């Protein structure tokens, strides 16, 4: 059987730096092929070459055994090769339906709005996604945008579908919906390429796995040949043990007391406390208001209710106020809210702490030193220090954002989806890093849709549902079933109901 | 939802306020004659502003439209005067003149568009350059003076501005048609959709198989043709072209687009808003003439205040989007 | 007809340069004065920055202000001819000021300066006071027909005198632009005997540039229009500005006054009144000096 | 790397070409006198353009600067004439005049900035409005004519434009200082960094604890003060202000900024590029006056062509960034 799409000895350089060194691999119809590797290994680059968005420096892309006839993403799409990009590929001012049909609108002369809306609705229903086709992308939560992105790709009738970390921003339930669609497509003979840093997904989905390290293929395997540990070892090049640090057991006094906190229109009447040296996990479904709560807490959204910092009542109107009280927030939307994509690493790293780098003039050497440290501490892999952050691999962007958030030495950090798009090796590093922070006396709030992360990291878990606190779990009470039950709102009686 | 309706009604509310003010200040304000005058004179800037809406929506800008109008008017007059001996005065001459105007407009728009999309120069610079070029060329062709259409030809051509059907003059009719087609094109055609997509994020549009350069080029060409169309209606009104024809029209057209609620950075366009914007600007002038409010030296100041106030009415939107 | 009230529309270009500023001032001043004298006459004043706007203004006066007469200084002759004719055809009195319409016989009254004479008077002064072979530079106004008329007349007047015109660039009747252009003339030409600045605002900019270059004694300057600062200098016998040529902005006052007279009295006022351009010399300067005017 | 150097050298290359052209066309071009003239003339627009660089870099725009300069000049002259009897002619009078100019500039910039940041109205609209307002106010105050500084006072004040030290006149010196400080502020201070961040993505800036509104406000205030400073040097040149003072300076300043390589959409600013842009624009005028190339009617056309060509030289950058 000829592969639907294949790479033959592909090299790719950006400027003087070669990031792919002779890649060979093939996608077959009716098969899910997983591509895994550390951040910056070259996964997205391979996918872009396959999808016609980048041209390889040397080597060939073969479509049905013939040199690929396309030279742009648009032509590739016409040939049936569709890509779901790691970075969002939606026009923020257009609506969901307008984005789903962008470039292939129905209607001969006048656009057929009704058909577009109807078909978009059908695609969204298929994905169990409840956003309106008329909602503007700008107003959607990150996870909803990802579902729209998937709907857009599904609508394009692909014979080869390439998915670059589609699950990174999705919750458990949405991932299951996605998997059902992938199974359906596989059964209908589509060739699929999938990347993810969630290795359990890979094990569950992939018929074939290619492991990439530093731009070269280091291992190819069939379903069942690799365990999750095996994959991690192949990716990282060494054994990984103890992904999660051990639990901490002694906490200091209460440093933050939140009382009757509301962020209209989503968050209602939330109260909780945070102790010194503690990691508080916040779990919940997409849209349960976790991000709004966090943004309210650091003064980014108008809010009501009282905040007490070490017993003192405080009011926050901006992130600058929050920073003055030692609060920092890491956003879940790194592209739109976290990083300046067209600026260098240095400028991004120091943006919120410029005051420390010289009083009148900014000291460039001090900034460079800080960057060197950040690159070491967070293992940021950038081919060049002066490159635009938008050209970093997704995971390395996330690491830089983490470094940026930690630079002001906050006493309380709220991290929204800390390891989104981060490889397993680095993930473990980050968990240990958070642990070290807590042990050093910081307080950390982790908002995460990744269940193992919540379970493995938190000293206490707050579960939110529809903008309210659905429950709080502590110590040994933190179990997957307990969390899921609170998340879904299925109490004993409700289960009996159903 | 509340923001939406505020932003939608903002410019309309300003327009209605102005109409009420006008009616209050002068009894003749609502007379058929005055309304016809205001609408007809809005037509030139109006058609240009409709084209400008597409350019701005797709993330561009065109500073050259005023000079372009002068240049097209000059070429049209020259051509008509030159063809007069051959064609004689009559419909063929007028049609030939119109063809020249549309053709020159198309070429001028094409020149702007190609420099912007092919040579990749900022629209601001390209059209600042062509603004100077077009205006100098008219001045040069007219030898510093005025280019005039032959008197007889002009008498024949005059009804294109002053005449009409059903009591509605041609400029108003043509403007209405352009506005309706523009609104349709923006809302209901691929072209409009692509303009918004490109203005919103040109990379996304390119990734989605939109021919970004071609769409951008088309916005400038369409604008050029609309400037040509506006000129066709303008020439019978004044019968001449000079270095001061169409002075500052670009600023007025851009202002109308922005007042109408289109974002200067692109991504979102509203043709009917532009039409309202144009009417607001014309009405301000008209009302200042209706009443002896203050020293004429202060007209500019009042104009400025009203423009800002008109936009304050739709502030709800901007500040909601700003965050 | 004492009990009947009249409305007179006045449409002029806005105050974009010194001369027009003076004209605007005279128009407003005259209106204020006449309104006080004749309670039954009302005036509507509109100023326009471009011909199209002026046409709008005239249309508005006709449609909404019920004017009985119109005093208009056309921004440009061509484009205003049609609209002013429409006013005439509506049975109104029409007074045209300064720039004639492109079709004869429309206006009832024509009051104007004489652009040809303006250039010619200056040219003759140059001819009489410069030797053959003398070098002069010209600063032109905004490119318009009337600027062409003036320059043509000037060149015709010096034709055959052996005076050489080194350069003629546009100073746009603007002090700053004239300053810049003159600076560059001074860099370019080592020897200049005289400057025709064609406007007093420009003359002031020119004088400044010459002073800065330290070449005050090398050349003299003739401006035009009769700005009070320049007249004062002529009066005081300043060698740098030996003379000036009038082109009075007050012509608008005469036009408005005569138009008003037509309505309030039986005096016959129609016809053509050409206000010639005179050479202002130290001897006669006092009669052209109006220290209260802003111009 | 190659793109970078092309983009960096683009405007410089254009400048050098112009200098060579000028020297070739006229022997006096490189004379100290001519160079002083060109530089001193550039100083007004130059200082304003440096301020404009910050405004544009942070995603704003200011169309009102030309009118603002006229307004400030008018107020300054009025104030000095009024204070003359009390203070007498001397340094205190000049200092008082300067203080008025800087104060009025600051307030004017503050007004623009507050309307834009507090009321949340598009910069284009706000400054289009204030442009009309400032200009009308001057015309009104001057009664349509010219406001002139008292003759004696002016004689005393004159050296501020024409005098200098070490053979370099004050406007040139002040401009140089403003340019150097501006470059430093853009590259090496928090303010400049914040401007770039806000223009690049204002939401990211807000999430990064940058006080977005305050920084934006400060760009307008700084621009206002720089306009005031430019006026301080302008007034002693001709000693007058009228409705036509500073006409179209806004367009020239914005053009200089864009020619210099700053992006109109914000996010990236280059003060030294702006300085080069200003010099390019002044040189074009100067060369056109020095050389008898063609009909002066065509000056605008040549200007337009050179502006576009100057930017084509740095096209490498735009097209690299555009994708
Ligand atoms: N346009 C570009 N210019 C320069 N370097 C680039 C560019 N695009 C990608 N790179 C570099 O190529 C390397 C591979 O990046 P790629 O995005 O393919 O990694 P990835 O495997 O997808 O990582 P992640 O898991 O973090 O998404 C990285 O070092 C990245 O910085
Ligand atoms: N600007 C906005 N306008 C309208 N609705 C919004 C806006 N921002 C968020 N929402 C909606 O508010 C709800 C809460 O979103 P939020 O991002 O807080 O959820 P979350 O619990 O943090 O989920 P996630 O896992 O996506 O972070 C969602 O339904 C989201 O679509
Ligand atoms: Mg990737
Ligand atoms: Mg969230």
TrEMBL record, chain A:
Pfam families: ABC_tran (PF00005). It comes from Gemmobacter caeni. GO terms for cellular component: plasma membrane. Keywords: ATP-binding, Cell membrane, Membrane, Nucleotide-binding, Repeat, Sugar transport, Translocase, Transport. This is Monosaccharide ABC transporter ATP-binding protein (CUT2 family). The lineage of its organism: Bacteria, Pseudomonadati, Pseudomonadota, Alphaproteobacteria, Rhodobacterales. It comes from the Bacteria. Its main location: membrane. It is a peripheral membrane protein. GO terms for molecular function: ATP binding; ATP hydrolysis activity.
From TrEMBL, chains B, D:
GO terms for cellular component: plasma membrane. It comes from the Bacteria. InterPro entries: ABC_transp_permease. The keyword Transmembrane applies. Its main location: membrane. The chain crosses the membrane at residues 38-56, 63-83, 89-111, 123-142, 162-184, 217-235, 247-264, 271-288, 294-313. Keywords: Cell membrane, Membrane, Transmembrane, Transmembrane helix. It is a multi-pass membrane protein. It is found in: Cell membrane. One of its GO terms (molecular function) is transmembrane transporter activity. This is Monosaccharide ABC transporter membrane protein (CUT2 family). The lineage of its organism: Bacteria, Pseudomonadati, Pseudomonadota, Alphaproteobacteria, Rhodobacterales.
